[in-house]
Amino acid sequence: MNAMVFLITTVFQLYLSIVILRLWLQFVRADFYNPFSQFIVKATHPIVGPMRRVIPSIGRFDTATFLLALIVVTLKMTLLSLIASQPIDFLAISLFSLVSVIKHAGFLLFWMLLVSAILSWFNQGYNPFIMVLGQLTDPLLAPIRRIIPPMGGLDFSVLIMIIGLQFLNMLCSQYVPYWNFI
Questions:
Q1: Phi, psi dihedral angles at 107 (to 5 degrees)
Q2: What is the Cβ-side half-sphere exposure of residue 13, based on CA atoms within 13 angstroms?
Q3: How many other β-carbons are positioned within 10 Å of the β-carbon of residue 180?
Q4: Which pTM was predicted?
Q5: DSSP assignments along 88-136, one per residue
Q6: Are 145 and 154 in contact (CB under 8 A)?
């Protein structure tokens, strides 16, 4: 049973990451001709494409992709409840899904910041993956860079953002239901 829980959780979390990245790529208007962006689009388009015909976007926010993220978490929680032979409470699962998508987006942001900071030490010219990471994280780091510009070649904006994410995570764990169970 633990192996099935692990497999279901891993597969759904990986696909949720891809769906959130698609939502994020569209929101920041990243380069969709980038190979990494193309992978994200191709992995989600069979489901998002038909949904977008029915569910309109709100400005730059793609509601169909966000709904898909909620559906992915809802399916994961429903399958895990069935495996554990627990009753399915769709109200709790709905609230849990919303909280899970938000927390997973923060988790992705943390890892993208960390990877982009580490890769910046070794970057030798153009790299499509690093370019997309920059397009995804720079809009969030720009306000911090305006307040605290890079000093002596060191950019502290990533460190400040990671500290802020950790603070938000700790704050939400105190006040948001289900935050610690994700």
A1: -60, -45
A2: 13
A3: 11
A4: 0.89
A5: P-HHHHHHHHHHHHHHHHHHHHHHHHHHHHHHHHH--S--HHHHHHHHH
A6: no
Q: 149 in helix, strand or coil?
A: coil
- Name, in order, each residue with C-beta under 8 angstroms of 136's C-beta and a sequence gap of 6 or more: 21, 24, 25, 28, 30, 112
Q: How confident is the model at residue 123 (pLDDT cuts 50, 70, 90)?
A: confident
Backbone angles phi, psi at 79, to 5 degrees: -65, -40
Size of the chain, expressed as the number of residues it contains: 182
Q: Which residue type is seen at 2? A: N
How do residues 47-80 score in pLDDT, each as one tens digit?
A: 999 999 999 988 888 999 999 999 999 999 889 8
**CA distance linking residue 108 with residue 20, whole number of Å:** 9
Q: Are 49 and 92 in contact (CB under 8 A)?
A: no
Task: Give the single-character DSSP code of 61.
Answer: B
CA distance 172 to 25: 25
Q: How far is CA 144 from the centre of its chain?
A: 21
Contact 155, 57 (CB under 8 A): no
